[in-house]
User: What shape does this take?
Amino acid sequence: MIGLRDVLRAKKEISKYLSRTPLVYARNISELMNCDVYLKLENLQPTKAFKVRGGVYFALLRRGEAQKRGLVAASTGNHGQSIAYGGNLIGADVIIAMPHGVPEVKIKRVKDLGAKVIFHGEVYEEASDYAERLAKEKGMIFVHGVNEPLLYAGVGTMHLENLEDLPDVDVIINPIGGGSGAVGAVTVAKTMDSSIKVIGVQAEGAKSFYLSWKSGKLVSTGRADTIAEGLATSKAYELPFSILKDKLDDVVLVSDDEIRKAMKVLLEEEGQVAEPSGAAAMAAVTKMKENLRGKKVIAMITGGNVDPSMLKEVIES
Assistant: This one.
């Protein structure tokens, strides 16, 4: 479990290396949605995704050990970039295991940060199991993309910025893959003011957390079929579930088609490039339009690492 104090500690450390991202009022989208929509632009991070906050914080706190042993992680892209970025920052060797099918743009950016990439499995969980075995064999530090509390504290700093910039927010909408972003949201927002609604978003084709939240127990679908690779987990994880199960106000499912439309809206109306998982919160805003009428809403634009071919397809659709 993490608390607001942990997030404040993380802010003190990572603010030396990462600038805060803007929270912008989306005027055109607000008019379309009949509510005040603010976009938290984590797609403007140096890795174009929110997870770099957690990777930098982990690397800084485990600096000495990481420099000696190196870091291993599994990722569909953005967690891998975050650990590669943190490792590069402190001068540590990094290996990232990725499932097959990860967009080339994410693979290239992990490699550009100096990490070695190994492909294994078809879904995140298969790559993660392999990465954990590899870390044991090589004596390296395994950084789990979901069950590592230091990542939550680092990621939570984006929600600290949200409350500093918009203290009277009514609703925060955050995508859920593993759950670190949503954990940051409830940790900060619910501590500040329990009346702030925190809503999670999952892809219809990767809804293990949604099913777990609805049933009150961990559920694994064993599959992840979505264009949003950042949300493509095939099971719910115990640590984030234990934190989120009683604190989230709702979890919304969005289809791949709704995600594509949200990507197009963000690009055409606000000039923002979002990857599929990064546009999921915007898709949820559209889906929940009637329930959000008149409210101040923060949609977390969590990433912008999208293949040019997909972006072209979305623009032409």
User: Anything to note?
Assistant: The domain at 52-146 is CATH 3.40.50.1100 (Rossmann fold). The chain has a mean pLDDT of 96. The chain has two domains: 4-49+150-316, 52-146. Strands lie at 23-25, 36-41, 71-74, 94-98, 116-119, 141-142, 171-175, 197-203, 250-254, 296-301.
